[in-house]
Design goal:
Blueprint (H helix, E strand, L loop, with lengths): L2 E5 L3 E5 L1 H7 L2 H4 L21 H19 L3 H8 L13 H7 L13 H10 L3 H8 L13 H14 L8 H6 L1 E3 L3 E4 L3 H19 L2 H19 L12 H11 L1 H8 L5 E6 L6 H5 L3 H12 L6 E4 L12 E4 L2 E4 H4 L1 H9 L6 E5 L4 H12 L3 H5 L3
Parallel strand pairs: 4-7
Antiparallel strand pairs: 1-2, 3-4, 5-9, 6-9, 7-8
Helix pairs in contact: 3-4, 3-8, 4-7, 8-10, 12-13, 15-18
Length: about 375
Amino acid sequence: MEKTIQDTVHGMIKLDDWQVSIIDTPQFQRLRRIKQLGFANLVYPGANHTRFEHSLGTMHLAKILAKKLEMDDEVIVSALLHDISHPPFSHSSERIMRTYFSSGHENVKLAITGELRDVLENLGFSIRRIADIVEGKRESIVSGDIDVDRMDYLVRDAHYTGVAYGIFDISRLIDKIKFQNGVIVEEGGIRAAESLLISRFMMYPAVYFHHVSRIATKMYERAMERVIEAGFDAKKLLELDDCTAMELLKNHDPEFYDLLQNRKLFKRAVYVGRESVDLKEIMGSNEHRIEERIAEAAGVDVKYVIVDIPPLEEFREFRVRVEIDGKIEKLEEVSSVVKAIKTSWIDNWRFGVYTKKEYLEEVKRAATEILGIEKTMQSRLF
């Protein structure tokens, strides 16, 4: 017997009984209380959507594509569970996971426990095979160069933030996808694939790496690190949601809890692009050590200095295969649009040093001297 959910983005999503049994587990219900975009609602007030609805949307697209490509339910359940291991505030806790778990949210086995594990085993699904699909160890439509995860989150995030950059033709792209040892986009879907890549390229500086989101993320990250170092078991993060994580901060780091809760965020003392730093050297640097040096030189408590070295995001879509006149080629080789994006996407990257408003001048002076950043280069980015 099917159930139906009305989704804001895709409309009616139909659920089979076995899908409902998974969704109704406590482990999956936790995703209702984890915001899809972490602290982005401090910039875009409408960005309060959750990993729960994104997971349903990803599963919905997987069902459509799996039916077209004659794939089995293993792909569908993998799409449904692809974000089950997201910690509180989604990607805002990603670095914490990699520090204390030595893996990221893609490791779904971390959260497939208890009732969820029992349900999956009773349904005959292999947890190992699900994990292999989500982690990209097996070619699939769930995790790949172009996948249903990206298709859903771009349009969903655009809808809830009100930023129109994430809009592209999902229906056209799905219609022109086939699967042969991985996704292949037929010639008629190349423009839709280009649009997806453009959407992602535009959404990164506007939403995913907006400086206010980055500052709040790093403040939360540092506060949670202090809580863990004080004795909290990091493994329990996957039992928490956004509210219980904030309650944890309230009890152990009330100052930073208040700053985040009331949007009293740090300001940018330094905020520069790759042309202002030695990118290779800075990517290999330890944020905490730089913070200690800057704090000592500025004469402020180290917890009021936050260094932000964002990861260099990988755009796997550059490698997506397309079919033109029966010949398989890479999208970047046949699209001038994609070639242009590939050479310019790194221009969105920013290195930041953040502090309280009252320490701005001292921290800016110390950071620019220690890091050798010219003030003229920095001023262009404000």
